[in-house]
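Help! Submission page says 'invalid entity' but I think these are all valid:
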Amino acid sequence: MNWSNIVTVYRKELKDSLRDRRTLLSTIIIPTLVIPLLTLGLGKVMATIVTRAQEEIPTIAILGGADSPGVAAALRRAPKLRIVPAPADWRRAISDKQLRAAVELPAGFEAGLRAGAAPAVHVYHYSGELKSDLGARAVERFLTDLREQTVAQRLAERGLAPTLARPFEFARENVAPPEKVGGNLFGGIVPYLIIILCFSGAMYPAMDLTAGEKERGTMETLLCSPVARVDLVLGKFLMVLTGSLAAMACLLLSMGLTAAVGGTLLLSGGAGKAAAAAAGRTAAAGAMPMIDPLGLVGVLAMVLPVAVMFAAAAFTISLFAKSYKEAQSYLAPMMIVVIMPAVVGMLPGIDLNVRLALVPLLNVSLVCKEMLSGVWHWNYLALIFGSSCLYAAGALGLAVKMFQREDVMFRT
Amino acid sequence: MIEVHQLTKIFQDRKRGAIRAVDGVSFRAAPGRIYGLLGANGAGKTTTLRLLATLLRPTAGTATVAGFDVAREPEKVRAHVGFLAASTALYGRLTAREMITYFGALNGLAPAEIKARLRRIAAELDMDEFLDRRCDQFSTGMKQKTSIARTLIHDPAVMIFDEPTLGLDVMTARAIVRFVRECRDRGKTVIYSTHVMSEVEKLCDTVGVIHGGRLCAEGTVAELRAKHGEQDLEEVFVKIVGAEGSP
Ligand SMILES: Nc1ncnc2c1ncn2[C@@H]1O[C@H](COP(=O)(O)OP(=O)(O)OP(=O)(O)O)[C@@H](O)[C@H]1O
Ligand SMILES: [Mg+2]
């Protein structure tokens, strides 16, 4: 191994890659744009959709209720509901989104109320459809109010205190600081994005420096030089790693900028609140979910061996190919292999254990999620970092070995 | 100086099984002389030359190039060899200057030395006008000149040419032929593979006819003509190859 040769090769590959549009696109431009596009674009669209859905007054049909005119009238008067005549085919109307929900007042409902106990009321909705769910919830709020009014009225009639039926109140308060909420909200998606971009950042340089060179006929030229094969691989590998790390750095930089610039934008638009509400959280109004910077540093450290592994793996795989196209057809399915564990890591409810800590990629994506929400399991961190380094070393060793095999380099 | 002794290369191919691409080839090429390897498609020329340039490792036999064994000291061999083939292309996104400088650095030359040599070679080959343009915009002739400069930057004692005129027009091919002669006149050991008879007649001091991986005849053009009683080299070649039987 001769470092001056490795540096010579690396510098040439760096210069060469900086002139390659495909490599620039995948290592710098896309990683820089993905976060702003996701948060400012998609995030804003999401927030707008949720806000609009919440602002909409749901269209509700009353089924039956001919002998309950009082309740029906109260429903019609309710400001948060728009009552329309029930169509014959109301189930279809709900599916077709002409109706958000339907409420069925059973026969003798009001009479039952007066007498003491009334039959159950049914609320029909289309589960999983956001606006239908919100409509059903509005109806349920109305019914809850009605029930409480009835209770209060009965207590008053009997001269009893309202606290008899409601001995205490309770309220939910958030103790997680805003960055921890951010950790949970974004903790899943950030490692996922980092892992994917790390791979796609390695992918194009890897293909260009191996199969691309074979295809263009420069590989044989390079092999004619007296530089040892090991030095050639390591110089090239360092360039692929640079691509991977550049993608990560661009992603993180643009994430920081987006948080700084976009945070204020999001807040002024009120979309931050809506986004938090969409995730089912009651974030304190005005508190932009932030990511713990220390967690981010931890993520970087954990992802480093992963980047090495990706660079070496992408390099080895595309080394087999004779052309850029062939390399692409090998690496595209690899993308799925990379995405899978990252996606699994994003699912809620999967927690680290020793066995999962040894699964490449999944371990990193799980532990990153924890670090970003401020949880530091040092034992797992050490185990995961160690195993990732081992996998990385294995992949790099394989790359060096493959580069020395003439049936790989001169495949016909 | 190149000395080849019983050199053999067997490829394991999934469909075709074991291919004896080079089969017990022995010959010597001396400094200041051009050794021609004449053979049809698939005869084993490229494989032989790749073995000499240590791009491939021999299955059996030995070869020494500029005094170094191809199997034991491949890096030293490569440091003394300039290898030019149709398959040794240029980096399209680099300029000619960057390309040549890169190979100078890979050969361990100091930057000042590279600069001086580059200036001299560029003047000789009349390259100054396109030295700082990217190689992917070059005409075939410019590419050839840049490739030649790349093989010359470390001033190797041995030059290996694998069908260097393949696909070139007459003028560019003549320039190459002239360049090969110059290499010989400077005392380099030159080995030149081709399937073009006229190039053999014009260039080669000694010819080795290779067929099916075997070296089946060797000598000067005049010797081969005399031995087979034919004036036309093509007829000579057909006689030699025909006697071997088609593989
Ligand atoms: N890497 C390889 N793997 C398997 N077989 C190979 C490989 N390289 C060459 N061969 C086979 O070895 C034989 C000799 O090939 P070679 O390229 O040396 O011939 P050549 O004389 O250079 O021919 P051409 O005029 O076509 O360039 C051919 O049958 C070829 O198919
Ligand atoms: Mg050939």
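Support: the input was valid. A stray whitespace character was the problem, and the output above is from the cleaned input. Chain B touches chain A at residues 12-13, 50, 53, 55-57, 75-76, 78-79, 81, 83, 85, 87-94, 98, 102-103, 105-108, 147, 150 (CB under 8 Å).
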